[in-house]
Amino acid sequence: MKAKLTITGLIIATIVWAPLTSTLARGDDFDAVVKAIEQFYHVKHQSLPLLARAGMKGARTVARIRGGDYKRIADAGSVRLVFFEDQEFNSHGQIASFKASIKTALNDTWSPLIATLSAKDEEQTYIYIRDAGAKFHVLVVTIERREATVVLATVAPDVLAMLMKDPGDMGKTLTDDAAMNDPK
Amino acid sequence: MKTLFQSSVKLAAVMLLLFGGAAITAHAQGARLQLDQLDSLANKASETVDVKLDERLMQTAAKIFTAKDDADIKEILKGLKGIYVKSFEFEKAGEYSQADVESVMSQLRGAGWSKIVGVRSRKDGDNVDVYLMMQGDQIEGLAVISAEPKEFTVVNIVGPVNLEKLSKLEGQFGVPDLGLDQPKPKKNK
Q1: What is the ipTM of this complex?
Q2: What is the three-state SS of B55-95?
Q3: What's the whole-model pTM score?
């Protein structure tokens, strides 16, 4: 009887704990990337997103890619978004070191899809993907000379298929989409 | 005695599976080039593009491309174990060294790689080499190294590559234009 109770307890604990650890891990990765940016560039993120930033330009980009009227790309309520605004992002010729620090901040469950860097303009985009059951988590880090954005979103497989065909535009599309919706 | 014999057979089978599996994995990984040493070039490059579609992402891609329009892509991606692209553009010539190129080329000597195309342009200083890794009649990997005065690009595709269909990957998944377009058959008038 005691053994049965112990086993039942363990099963319940596993059921309760598994989604919790998954959520925590997701939050940890997002926070770890934000922290990596703050430590490397000596900047601080702003929690309150300035939604006006996205504007119609973002809507047009997203609509163009979806082939018509604007439709949401990321799953509702799945988006986490952090802005760094009006701060100096200068890698002092060590942009490759920052790339390495992003890689270090993320655990092995993430697959890097694409990284584009421009040392001269201090512009960078990183996209990481990982399996999230029936859907996928996409992490996009965008850095420019005076601002940066980190987006974590959950997308459906068909959306990921669409985005993967053009990974170069993927970061902008997802960031625009996240900024236009209700980031947590 | 019988038990000892049975145990020995079982042990041998397990060892065979372990070593056999390791050998297969080693060959599959053989076509994957080590390119991380090039990452520091990003500090000097005006534009860097680094695409990594690893085995896990390839499996994901195989699952998510379900639309009819994606049938060709799915066919090409089927069986592939990875697509890796590193491309560096520089503002002036001489920003990357022969040692950087050699760090890739040295991996293509031996170990099953054969050069199938080598283009040298003395005028422009453009060098393009295409290597294939073969196992029997099957292509196990492809490497394209393009070294121009202001640009250095390495494309590495791991797994069974269908050269006829490969051109369909150009411009997709971050794969640059490799000039792989098949010549169109001439029409008889």
Answers
A1: 0.74
A2: HHHHHHHHHHCCCHHHHHHHHHHCCCCEEEEEEEECCCCCC
A3: 0.75
